[in-house]
Amino acid sequence: MPNDPMSILTPYHGTKPEFAGPPAYAGAGAAVLGRARIGRDAWLGPCSVIRADGHCVEIGDDFFLSEHATVHIAHDVLPTHIAHHVTAGPRSVIHACDVASDCVVEREAVILDGARIGPGAVISARSVVFPRTELEGGWIYAGVPAKPVERIDAAGLEARHQKLRAEQRTGDAVAMRQEAPAFFLAPSATTIGEISCGIEVGIWYGCELDAGTGSITIGDGTNVQDNSLLRCGSGKIEIAGDVTIGHNVTLAECRVETRSLVGIGAVIAPGTVVEKDVLVAAGAETEPGQVLTSGKVWAGRPAKPIGDMNEARRKMLSETLPTYRGYAAHFRDADVAPIPTRQSE
Question: Does the keyword Iron apply (predicted)?
Fold first, then answer.
């Protein structure tokens, strides 16, 4: 299949991504940025994102990154290492961690900072591997947090690789709309309908903002990170200023108040109110109409308060905002080129 000219290859502070060999495929809106070193025969699905804008991302041969999946680092603190023959399913997130060879990360699964995944492990769909967790290879893990449920042999493991890879679509066009003014609107982000953004807003790679017949409002200084999905019916999504929406978050009609963070892979149901000064943990899910009260950390499915906000957590939230404004300032003016694949040579 031909290389899609809408794929994105961008340096970060002068460092360009490196490939040991041309990727087998780079779909519409696939983005590779910064200090990434990627092995041979990579398959980069539509709107997939590999961001090495701080520490490095190192990936082995035969890496398969499905549509709207995200690989990222933790600023300049933690890198991401992914070994050979790893498959990451749609809307999955591999974040600042180590993933050994032959692993499968299924649809909407999340691996968080400092985790180490042994060879041949399967992280089941919608599971969350908590920070600094070490998981032994050769097991299927499921849940929040991910726990071992059964052993898997080589044949079963390869079947899971092939099933995920066979399901992927290719060659999809990305509708490029820019009705909403934004400090940074990534080239592969899409915006549809009535969307209003304040100053210094960042809408990152692969995001989809669809206001339907309603509206989406995003306040000053807020960042909506890679591959997040904001979708209204006829209602409103209202996000205040100085909010962080993490990678691969799903928001329906809701309100998120200032100085809050919605963690990686969280799902915010219709009618939810996230009050100010709240941390929604990675992988959490709210119930329709739920109110997440101020000053708390909320986690689980459904989300429940598990602790109080403290100075360390508030410091982490406040430091994320200028960091993302800095990223946005860089990538807004960065050079963009298509990702060269075997078919484009």
Answer: no
CATH number, residue 196:
2.160.10.10
Q: Would you call 312 helix, strand, or coil by DSSP?
A: helix
pLDDT tens across the length of the chain (345 residues): 333 447 899 999 999 999 999 999 999 899 999 999 999 999 999 999 999 999 999 999 999 999 999 999 998 899 999 999 999 999 999 999 999 999 999 999 999 999 999 999 999 999 999 999 999 999 999 999 999 999 999 999 999 999 999 887 554 434 433 444 457 899 999 999 989 898 889 999 999 999 999 999 999 999 999 999 999 989 999 999 999 999 999 999 999 999 999 999 999 999 999 999 999 999 999 999 999 999 999 999 999 999 999 999 999 999 999 999 999 988 988 888 888 887 655
| 160 & 13 share domain | yes
Q: Can you say whether the dihedral through the CA atoms of 92, 96, 97, 98 is positive or negative?
A: positive
Residue with tokens 């915006």: 191
**What pTM was estimated for this model as a whole?**
0.90
- Dig out the tokens for 203 from the structure: 């809408």
| Residues 46 and 155 grouped into a single domain | yes
User: Are 254 and 290 within one domain?
Assistant: yes
Quick one: 228 and 277 in the same domain?
yes
Phi, psi values for residue 320, rounded to 5°:
-65, -35
Number of domain units in the chain: 2
